[in-house]
Each structure stands twice: as structure tokens, then as C-alpha cells.
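Submission checklist for the structure archive. All mandatory fields must be present; incomplete records are returned to the submitter.

[x] Identifier: GMC family oxidoreductase N-terminal domain-containing protein
[x] Organism: Streptomyces malaysiensis subsp. samsunensis
[x] Residue count: 164
[x] Sequence attached
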Amino acid sequence: MIIRLAEASSLRPVLHRRDLTVVTNAMARRLIIDGQRCRGVVYDKNGAERSAYARHEAVLAAGTIGSAQLLMVSGIGPADHLRHVGVTVKADLPGVGENLHDHPVIAVAYTASRPVRKAFVRKPNVRFSSGLSDQPDLQMVFLDSPCIRVGDQGRKAGTPYACR
């Protein structure tokens, strides 16, 4: 079985398991579906297509967009859309691939000239809206975290903050 995790540290405690195989530098292409079960995954490694099969369970953890994409190219998703793009339908699940939102991030790091109250940093996120939607379209997250900018080595440490 192949698992793709956001953080390798989540995987380290179970790397010794005999029922787990980790393949790195590979790209999952589609799931192997047999009836109502996922039996494995087809992936590319060094330009060659390979398959991995699960004995018991397959875990799909390719992130929000990657998981939806793998499901859809494997025939799981909104049937009309899958047929329209030439994918054989294995399961009609209209919610797959719906309501996905991009979350662009711009980080701005700065050093405060004086200590900032922790209460300010730990307040709930500040949200802004253009008024065109009932949902905020900009969310500011304040983080109190140490950071060193390029060229700052050797300077006296200040009180760093980041705004994302």
C-alpha cells in the first residue's frame, strides 16, 4: 500500500510495519477499483508504470485536490461529468470534486520594535470581505514565531512576528 502524507514525521512511527510499503519520488495515476472496493493504485516511478495492491485496506491521502483527482480519474465522482470527459463510471458520487477552494497564502514577516502583547497575537483571526459574498475573502492569521531572514545572521534577536 502507498501512503502520501503531508508530514513524514507522521509516518516514522509506523515505518517498521511489515504491512506498509512506502514508495518515494512516485506519482499516483489512478486507483485500482474492483467492484465496490479499492484494491490498490497505479503509479509512475522513474518513467515506468507500476501497481501496488493492498491486502486489506487502501488509504487515500493525497490532499484535498489530489484525492478528488485520483477518485475522478479512477471513475468515482459525478457520473455525467465523468462520462463527458471519457472516464468509465465506477461509482456515481456527485460530491467528489465539488466545493474545492484554493487557499493562496502570502507570508509577511517582520520584527517588532517593541514586545507585542500575546493577547493580540492569540486573538481569533481577522477577516475581511469585499461584500460580494457572505464569506470573507481575506483572512489574516498572526503568528508569533522565531524567524531569521537572509542577511540577518549575527544581528541581535528581536521579537519576530509573521502575518499570513
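[x] Structure attached
Curator remark: The two ends are 36 Å apart (CA to CA). The longest helix spans residues 63-73.
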